[in-house]
Predict the 3D structure of the following.
Amino acid sequence: MYISQKNRIIDILSTAIEAIDYAVEKHDYSYITICEEGLLAISGYMKSIDDRNNVEILEALLVQIQKFTDAGIKKEKAKVKIAQIRKGIYEFGKSVKEQKGRYKAVFMPYKASMWTSLESIWMAARNDPNCDAVVMPLPYYDIGDIKNIKVIYEGDKFPDYVPIMDYRHYNLKTQEPEMGFIHNPYDDINNLTQVFPQYFSRELKKYIQCLVYSPYLTIASYTEGVSDFLYTAPGIYNADKIVAQSEQVSKLFQYYGHKRSKLIVKGSPKIDSVIMRQKEKQEVPEEWKEKLNGKVFLLNTHLSYLPRAFVFAGSINNYATKYLKELMNIFIDNKECSLIWRPHPLSRSMLEGRFPEYLEFVNDMEKKISCSKNCVMDKTEDYMIAFQRSDALISTYSSLINEYMMTGKPVMIFQKQQPPDADARALIKRNMNYFKFGPGKLTFSEFVNMVIKGEDPKYGERMEMLKQAFENMDGSAGKKIYNEVVKEILVCE
């Protein structure tokens, strides 16, 4: 018996007892029909789940009620008989409360590339014999180009070991899952992608007992006015529980009005994924096997990097073209190293819809990479493959840096270092990486040569810092988050 159904049965039984008490008080035994209707409804459910013991108890109670209503018992005997019925219903309700309830959990990612924010929680749910865990990817609109809105569904892009439930075959209203997990909190305020309206958080709340938001990113820094959206999106306020990677992040959520009791401070499933996947042998695309040799560098460009850089499109100061061309000159056909370029998964959609004039440069980059002997594009949904296959990361500022740092491999950020005061306040101190600008700056060539030599002088200090940035860095965050949610729904049992 599922907890949601169990609670409904207990409510019906409470109403039945109230009807009996009112009937006795008013000497009007017509109210007994309310008991009969309620018990019939419960009996129908018990038959549907083949709970024969409870069906027998209910049928015996129904026989008593039928005899009472048919017999026209005199008032002086009615109280005795009805007291017996009341006791039977009370004892039945008590036994229902004592039965261990099962629960349903529905996981609702929309982008396969963001599945890591939910995966380790799902694994814990899947391994719980009392839980029926379902992964139901949500369809969404690509609204990067408002004149060419597309419907996207990525249910076929998840790992093979994740069984997928088609959203058209899962009715939240009838299923009434005890818990639901989302990583997209933006509902109708996202200007690039938007899940179908029936899956906005305010709609999910109607059918899910405990709605949990597990952030799609890890949080490294905070700037008031700039970072507000990470704490104020509709789905965050509508969620019953919010996953926070650390106490520092928990305090930021609290600053925006979220109660401490709403926060689950057990770490990040995304870090679980890094830890787990680095231990496994990843299957890489065939092209990678042929082209990647020597030290492998992962190039990551954030969603906003190209649009912001192209503000200077007509100028020699266009740092996007300047630095990416510089990188290509270093890597193309270099026998000592290789390159994987992974643009943000929404980059092309954004450029096509809003900055089509910049696609020529990007297409030219991709063509050069395709024609090279040692460079590839990463168009997979699973960025963890590139994490494992690479030896170092070259990146613009991005939340992906936070996860990559967990691999222990060196990172170069080709933007400015954070000012010392900002770095001191940061949740994850990114200045412990290598930079193209600022104190101790390196050129791209210097960083590449350092990695080729196997050097990483900032390694020890960087890893010590990360221990303060995340709870449960042993890969147990997802399991502990899941256990906290189970406790929450059992309280309501």
About this structure: The chain is about 45% helix and 15% strand. The longest strand covers residues 295-301. The CA atoms of residues 24 and 58 lie 22 Å apart. The domain at 3-98 is CATH 1.20.120 (Four Helix Bundle (Hemerythrin (Met), subunit A)).
